[in-house]
Each structure stands twice: as structure tokens, then as C-alpha cells.
Design goal:
By secondary structure, the chain is mainly β. The protein is 0% helix and 47% strand. The protein has strands at 4-7, 10-13, 18-24, 34-39, 46-51, 60-62, 70-75, 80-85, 94-101, 114-117, 121-126.
Length: 127
């Protein structure tokens, strides 16, 4: 069983920055891709970013809507994945979730590619 706990959400003005953190339980954190998704009110959950794990870990993939503004990173020694969010826009307002990729998935971008999810953290960007 893997538990994921997000933190770092909050209220920020447009143009501002936030860094989300997600701490994972389990000793094999480094073996798996980790990702971030978000869900705005009335909308479906959408992919934000992912980073590969394992021996060739460190590769990243982003949704077009956040490319150049958001950066995903991980610290395997701390079992933590981060999402640095810069130049935030009101349309970035959502609940942000971290998730653990299923085995063998390198850069998963679909919800079904993930098997464990955190509870989410609210990010609100005011205009």
C-alpha cells in the first residue's frame, strides 16, 4: 500500500508562484513515475506533469497548458515529488493531485496509468 500526501496549496495572485509537495510512503518510490493532475470545479481531472523513475529516471513530460511555467522534480531520498508553479493564471485554479505511476509506465499521462492518488491540495489564483 502506498500513501501520498500533498501540501503547499493556497491562494495566490495571478503572476505569482507556489510549490506543491507530495510525500510518498513505501521504499520503492524511486522505481516509479510520479505525476501531477488537477481538477477544476465542473471539469474532468486533467494531466499536468509527470517525471519518470527507475534507472533512467528524470525525464519529464508536461501538458501544453503549463509547459514553460511549471516544473516537476523529485527527491528520491525524501520520497517526495514537487511541482513548482510560476506565472500562475486564474485558469490554473483547481485541486491538484499527485499520483504514482503503474509499474512499467515511463511517462504516463492518463489517469488510468496511475494506481495510487493523494487527497489533493487546493490552488486558487486570483485575478
Amino acid at each position: 500500500q502506498v500513501q501520498l500526501v500533498e501540501s503547499g496549496g493556497g491562494l495566490v495572485q495571478a503572476g505569482g508562484s507556489l510549490r506543491l509537495s507530495c510525500v510518498a510512503s513505501g521504499r520503492t518510490f524511486s522505481n516509479y513515475a510520479m505525476g501531477w493532475f488537477r481538477q477544476a470545479p465542473g471539469k474532468e481531472r486533467e494531466f499536468v506533469a509527470t517525471m519518470s523513475g527507475g534507472w533512467n529516471g528524470g525525464s519529464t513530460y508536461y501538458a501544453d497548458s503549463v509547459k514553460g511555467r511549471f516544473t516537476i522534480s523529485r527527491d528520491n531520498a525524501k520520497n517526495t515529488v514537487y511541482l513548482q508553479m510560476n506565472s500562475l493564471k486564474p485558469e490554473d485554479t483547481a485541486v491538484y493531485f499527485c499520483a504514482k505511476g503503474r509499474p512499467t509506465y515511463r511517462l504516463p499521462a492518463r489517469s488510468n496509468d496511475y494506481d495510487y492518488w493523494g487527497q489533493g491540495t487546493q490552488v486558487t489564483v486570483s485575478s
